[in-house]
Amino acid sequence: MANYALIDSYLGTVRARAHRRDVGEVLAELEDHLYTTVEVLIGDGMDPGLAERRTLERFGDVDVMADSFASQPRGGPVMPTRFTKTSGTLAIAGGVLWIVYVGLWWAAGVSPPWGEVEWESLSAASGILYMMGAGCLLAAAFLTFVTVLALNRRHGGLGRPGRIGLVLCGLAVIGALAAWIFVGWGSLLMVGMILTAIPVLQRGIGPRLPTLALGLGIPAGAITAVVFRALEDKLSLGWIGLWGDQWIPDLTGITVAAVILAVGLIGLGTWLRGEGLVDTDIAEHPLSAQ
Amino acid sequence: MSGQALKGHLDLLLLAVLSDGAKHGYAVIDELRTRSDEVFDLPEGSVYVALHRLEAAGFLVSEWSEVQGRRRRTYRLTEVGRNALSEQSRAWSEFSAAVFSVLKGVPWPTTP
Question: A193: exposed, middle or buried (C-beta count within 10 Å: 0-12, 13-18, 19+)?
Fold first, then answer.
């Protein structure tokens, strides 16, 4: 077999950066491709040195390719799938559930569970509305996680921020089921959605307004609640619970968050359900580096 | 056409190229170039990245053989990949026909 020093050096760079279990197979495959290409070019009459350089130029920048082959492929295909389309419907349902949730809690007339709900103070009807609202909240949080998962899957992954965001949103749902500490799991959900929205916006791969709404819903709600709490002394906005929860300021903040999230989820859901191909821009994809 | 213009469509094109039988990476790239009359010109390594991703997603399976002393990997469509190709081809056909109709100023679908 002929000696192709440039190709061997190229493959050496790929090998040095790879930390995947099938690195041997990847190198064998690339070697077959590169040697075949250079042999075809030489067979067409090209000078061997030029053929080797041309082969590597056509294959792609060594740094970009070495990074691309460094880890196991993940994220799935870059196209709408049955999963992403179904998730679109679920995202719309999630948006509706966020609205239903706050509606039920306003109707119940109770505080959000910043601490513990004062059950003794609730009428039977309020208690039922409150529990129905809590059920909607859990379902809405879960469907929000499904939407974040679908955004990742739709684009073959959103890089490290997307993966971290997905994990945080998943932990938030688990946290919501396991412990009723709104601030804790709400914060996880907020950070998770921000980390998901950033790569989508940076790469221009989704509708901007719904994506912005997904990322900014909870922060906007939190700011609203803080502002309303600051006004509490002057305006006497509702009662303050034993655990420091303030019905009108807190639920107003939650409402702002829920409405913005609903806009985001319904917009993203409508988009994910679309049959048409959507232009994508995967920054980590070698195509975008050319 | 640059790789930039192909982004987001490469997976579908690869499934289409593999729809008429198993091929190794070099043949896939060659077929892609030939079928597009050399309009699609992209870094060849990116095709392998996409092939690996599609295999990990269950759209393709690969087999190894030995050809002229070198190991060669061949890819073929799975049933999942064939279904995805069919679904996306239909969506793409509708989309491109609608764009063409707008550009040409004729209603779509056109009546014979």
Answer: buried
Q: How confident is the model at residue B1 (pLDDT cuts 50, 70, 90)?
A: very low
In this prediction the pTM is 0.62
Q: What is the Cα–Cα distance from A189 to A167, expressed in whole angstroms?
A: 10
- Which residues of chain B have a CB within 8 Å of the CB of A26? 48, 52
Q: Predicted ipTM?
A: 0.84
Residue A92 confidence class, pLDDT cut points 50, 70, 90: very high
B14 CA: distance to closest CA in chain A (Å) = 11
- Please choose, from the candidates B38, B1, B32, B33, the residue with its C-alpha nearest in 3D space to the C-alpha of residue B19: B32
User: Could you tell me what percent of chain A has a pLDDT over 90?
Assistant: 47
> Can you tell me the distance from the alpha carbon of A155 to that of B33, in angstroms, rounded to the nearest whole number?
24
> Please, which residues bridge with residue B61 across strands?
B76
Contact residues on chain B for A60, CB-CB shorter than 8 A: 43-46
CA dist A148 and A197 (Å) reads: 9
Task: Give the per-residue pLDDT at A238.
Answer: 58
| Residue A150 near residue A87, CB atoms below 8 Å | yes
Q: In what helix (H) or strand (E) does residue A230 lie, and over which residues does it extend?
A: helix A208-235
Q: Residue A191 CB: number of other CB atoms within 10 A?
A: 18
